[in-house]
Amino acid sequence: MTVMHAQVLAAGDVSGFGHDPWWIMLIKAVAIVVFLMVSVIWAIVWERKVVGWMQLRIGPNRTGPWGLLQSFADAMKMMLKEDLVVKNADKFVLVLAPIVAVVPSFMAWAVIPFGPEVSMFGHRTALQLTDLPVGLLYILAVTSVGIYGFVLSGWASGSTYPLLGGLRSSAQMISYEIAMGLSFAAVFLFSGSMSTSQIVAAQAHTWYVALLPVSFLVYVIAMVGETNRAPFDLPEAEGELVSGYSTEYSSMKFGTFMLAEYINMYTVSAVCATLFLGGWRAPAPITTIWAGANSGWFPLIWFVIKLQIGLFFFIWLRGTLPRFRYDQFMKLGWKVLIPVSLVWLVLVAVVRAMKNEGWQFGRIALWTVGGVLVLLILALVWDAVFRRKPAGGGEPAPEPAFDPMAGGFPVPPLPGQALPPVPRRAPRAQRRAAAARAAEAETGGTDTDDGDGSPSPANAGARSAATTSTTGKGAERDDR
Amino acid sequence: MNSYVPILVLGVLAAGFAVVTVVSAALTGPKRYNRAKLDPYECGIEASPQPAGGGRFPIKYYLTAMLFIVFDIEIVFLYPWAVSFDALGVFGLVEMLLFIATVFVAYAYVWRRGGLEWD
Question: What Pfam families does the annotation carry (chain B) (predicted)?
């Protein structure tokens, strides 16, 4: 129903699409599949190389020149591995799941614009398989179908780790899809269309990354969450879940999951380029020098460069950032990204409405800044007056004491709990001072320096040393 | 409707590729039976029992899915408004601000009730 609504309202001009002869359509479709396969082959080698450099290693260099044939070696290895189907698995769904995961990741590329109209064997046709009035909605819908592949694989494996990995994967994809969708809405506001070719056409003068920096930022964070990549690779957190949803997979079934992951990385990079980085358009300095940069087949170069920048960004993140904890990850998605993008969308809408009403720039800026300031002051007043403070000067209620052996096995402290002080022998000077105090107390009679009446003086010295060691630990934790 | 046909073609190509690789890998690989190999993965301990057709999982995932539906539908409502924003004018803006405020109340409620906490 919503699709029909959007189609009626999104009256972008996409009438140029859908008139290709069948053989041009077939060429384009095959070209997209080949392009993606080559890109993935490159991505696997490039990722291992870059991560290797970041870790002061060389990376693959045995297979072919510069290790370029590494992907073929990997694919060959997977083809020659035993195709296991574990005992508890739902056999049909186990085989179906990787296919369900990979097909939508290919299909999303049907509406990605690679370039403007070119002449192909005597026909004028755009470098884009097809376009819809609801192009971006189609991409969202198709990539969401890919989630089924991951959750089904976890469900069908009949094993604990894959089940949790599949659930995590689906929960994280849907959580970040909301923030992602909100950042799209701001783009539609400016482009007036959901069709990808129209959005690229609307960025002829200014790329949306300059107009909508907050949307861009939210999208970039959300796209990493969507693709299950580091630092949000919680579904495959090998420290907790072995390998997540793909634990029980082997051979090419596993390879198909990898293929889907890499294609998804390219897909979100392509959507990022289309929505915020001008699609296939050349960056500003090049267009001023060279007028023909945006016509013919050349835009393909800019588009591929933008894709590769996106890919490098993913690899860079993987090489530098540690993995998030799951609660931190969910908190970021639901409590930070969604409110930020919602408020930003409202701000953008209000400013654009003022502009449509013909207000001067200065007046718009004044009202906007004033409005934001008033909101901030209101929030501050609200915070100061209505915030419920627990008794004890704003300190939160004390957490239950940390039990390092809860449930009979060693556990780490939960958020809000502190590690108990490590019992440690006090430095010699302190021990000597404590002994001196003890001797004094014995001769003097009453023991007053010890508030809670600790029986042994040596213990007091040990405790004071332990206190210093805990504060030191606390500071360390804050630094991280 | 003609512009939807290429999507179908691409889908068939992709599905064909995926099915051929998965099936052919099952044929090219070796088959060596080993009872332990077919057990579900556990690191060296007895496998925890999983009923056929999926096991139990934390209710939080279910709650997340419900919240997703609520907010995703909100976003889908925002799209047509955003696309025809210039045509709707101030009326559209005010209407949508009211709508966003309504959804925001639900969001604040969920937040306050701890629906967004993931302990």
Answer: Oxidored_q4 (PF00507)
Site of tokens 């909605």:
A137
A182 belongs to a structural domain = yes
> Domain ranges in chain B?
2-112
Indicate whether A158 belongs to any domain.
Answer: yes
Tens digit of each residue's pLDDT (9 = 90 or more) over A89-108: 778 888 899 999 999 999 99
Whole-angstrom distance, CA of residue A441 vs CA of residue A457 = 9
ipTM: 0.87
pTM recorded for the entire structure: 0.77
Smallest Cβ–Cβ distance between B25 and the set A78, A99, A185 belongs to A78
Run of H or E including B11? helix B5-28
Range of the domain at A363: 9-370
- Cβ <8 Å between A178 and B71: yes
CATH of domain B2-112: 1.20.58
| Residue at B112: amino acid letter | R
Q: pLDDT, tens digit, for every residue of A452-461?
A: 444 444 444 4
Neighbouring CB atoms inside 10 A of A437's CB total: 17
State the total domains in chain A.
Answer: 1
- pLDDT tens digits, residue range A417-443? 777 777 778 888 888 888 888 888 877
Please choose, from the candidates A39, A390, A87, the residue with its C-alpha nearest in 3D space to the C-alpha of residue A248: A87
pLDDT tens digits for range B37-67: 777 777 666 656 665 555 677 788 888 888 8
- Within 13 Å of residue A216, how many CA atoms lie on the same side as its CB? 14
Q: In this structure, is residue A251 part of a structural domain?
A: yes
CB A200 within 8 A of CB A280: yes
Find, among A230, A224, A303, the residue nearest to A268 by Cα.
A224
How many angstroms separate the CA atoms of A376 and B14, rounded? 51
Question: Nearest Cβ partner of A80 from B7, B29, B61?
Answer: B29
Q: By CA distance, what is B80's nearest residue in A?
A: A6
A97 assigned to some structural domain: yes
